[in-house]
Amino acid sequence: MHQSIKANFLMSPPLVVAYAIAGTVDIDLSQDELVPGSGVYLKDIWPTLEEVRDAMASALSPDVFRKLYTDFASQNPKWNEIKGSIGEVFEWDGKSTYIQHPPFFADFSMTPGDIVEIKGARPLGIFGDSVTTDHISPAGAIKKDSPAGRFLTDNGVTQSDFNSYGSRRGNDLVMTRGTFANVRIKNLMVPGTEGGITKYYNHLQPQAQLMVHAHELPNGIVTGPEPTPSDSAVMPIFDAAEAYKAAGTPSIILGGEDYGMGSSRDWAAKGTRLLGVKAVITKSFERIHRSNLVGMGVLPCNFKDKADYDKVKDLSDATFDLLGLSNDFKPMSEATLRVHKADGSSFDVPVIVRIDTPVEIDYYRAGGILPYVLAQILRANA
To answer: Which of 119, 160, 241, 370 is deepest in the core (most CB within 10 A)?
Structure first.
């Protein structure tokens, strides 16, 4: 999809052709002529069932499939020209901008972690209803002036070779920068704007001024420089997340109804985790995204009273504590969201922690389902 498109419609190919002939969607195709004065209606060009069957019969035959899928390698010599390594484990190319060694096991431990309260968190995003997984982790084009675009440019990739987020999902350094980078996402922290930006507040974290200078990782990938934030500034969500991590400040996401709706895109949860987000607190979740957040070690919560969302949606400069969490936590237990407003006052909001089953508690304490499964395998083979 082109980044300037604000709406799209899903329909059958013949209907696409019909609207293209009409030149507008502001038409009743069941009654109106496709072109005024033409005398041609949709029923006149719509294929009959017999025509569809004839086309299918002419296009599909067992011989076609046998020809295309028998001896695949010899019919596709380009595949044979791709060089590959041989060994018991994958040989990572440290300078690749497509595939990198993922960081999900970086702090792996066989010992489960503790469930602890979250204190002094800052919001990275406050969103409305119906935020989709594509809003959270877009699959489309990478803008040149975005954090991901800057990263690729710094590593010698020209804009014409940026490709898309979907094609670079094997590189966490790109995908984390692309989290919440959809050009159509609306962050209520920066009213009247679109795109993956936020309002960063630094007046309680002076050490964040030291964050993120240009440096090169051991694999040769360049990760900066990123902007150094002031006391309060509008900036890309990724840059604010890096500043909060450098300051040791946890971050959270606040959202409305059906947060995470749409396709079950795993990077919507992976990117949220790698940004340093500790909790996502919403009116409601799409089922699979809630599960994916737990699977990445991010705490999903729902407002016990959905009306409480309205109490916090305009408090971009507040800090948040999530209290009542411990190793004694039971599935679907209640916790307290304590909101510290910029004027020094505070109030409490009850939330339901959406860790729904005992095994999800195990996932969360392990830091996510990937380290949990690795620990199970290591124990079984000890």
So the answer is: 241
